Write the structure tokens for this entry.
Amino acid sequence: MVEIEDSGDRTTRSNLTESPGKAGDYLILFKLAGLSDGFPSYIHLMCEKILTVAHLSKKKHKVIDFPLFIAGLNDAIKSVAETLRHDYAWATEGREESCKHILWAIADTADLIRHKAHIIESYHTVCQNIPTDRVTEENFNRKFLALRRESHGQIIIPGLGKRPSWYRFRENMLRGYIRMLAEAHGVPLDFQRYRVAGEHSAFAMGKYSRYTPLTSTEDKVAHLRGDDEKSE
């Protein structure tokens, strides 16, 4: 396995300021830096897609506005490496929506390794921002455990060896991809703050796209695959 270096927040911001084109709002630059999670390849991908959308648009754009940002972000998500898309899809497609919400919560904050109690706090705020009802603590624990199993792609793993309650994504680049998905669903996460006691990390922003829960058919597929609570 080839290890890809994380360039860090400072280098990320430097890369963005040297990128072609103009951002209409510092918040867009901030989002690009956070969504990239320090990986230059993500910055380049998102900027390329945003500028392509702007170039193909019938309207002449002097700055990058939020509609262009979201359109480019959606194109970037579709272009992410197949292996990353496969891992996320295996953990979420045809399963209950709460699996997505838990993964979005894990991708919150600047911490690569997170304590489960902090993940739960982020999960509560993510659910408030969607908005949707939270699953029970027992159900959350079942689903969290399932995301560590091979049946769900083992997308999260212990973060500090045998030390309990600390977790991280199996692949660091998955976190950037999952952040992009959360953003595209109107659930921005905190990219900069390290966990501080008593503070919630995810924060409410305007919705950019409508979040659509599972249909009844998709819900039936989840149960046929054995994803109901009894099998967890």
